[in-house]
Structure formats: C-alpha cells, structure tokens
Amino acid sequence: MPRRHGVDPSLTGRRAECDGGGAIPGTRFAGREDFAGDLTGDYVDHGDPPWRWYLLTDLSRKPPGYPADSVWCESESLFLIDAEGRTLPDTLPAQRNTPPARQRRK
User: Fold this and answer.
1) Domain map of the chain by residue range?
2) Dist. CA 36–CA 99, nearest whole Å
C-alpha cells in the first residue's frame, strides 16, 4: 500500500483526543479505546485512497494496560481540545479521498 509521511507544523503541540477500537483479548469482539495527548504534527497518509493518521504523544489518557506513550490516530477520529478538555471547532485536514455525501432533494 502506498504510504507518504509528512509534518503539519500548525498541529505541533496541540492538545487532542481520539477514539478508536481495539481487540478484546480472548474474544472476537472489539471495545472502545479513548486517548488524549499532544499532537507532534507528524502524519502518514496510508492506502489508496489515502487515510491520514496523526501521531499523538505524551498521553494523559489511555486504556488500562496500554503499554506505549504514543498512538497513531485516524484523522476522522481525532478532535482538538482546549486546556479544560473541551472540543474545539477547529478541524483537522483529512486526507481521505471519499466522495462528498449526497444531499437530499427537497
């Protein structure tokens, strides 16, 4: 699969949250996982069409037993937050090449 690395300096040091899912050991199920930390600005576009993933470090929230202090988060599951943890209206540049949603006709 094609992969392209880059850095977005405007995101370096920004606080963010991301959610995702991970396998539940010993089952065929996945559970929700929540993370919070600081964006490095590093990203990777992966696949064709590309999906953009951002690197979140210095994790202040992570699942129990999660061994690392960083995680790659898919752009559509990543939200910028302020110092109190409130979601900011800023949006991240998603690199996912999906067609725009259809609009309903009135």
Assistant:
1) 3-80
2) 30
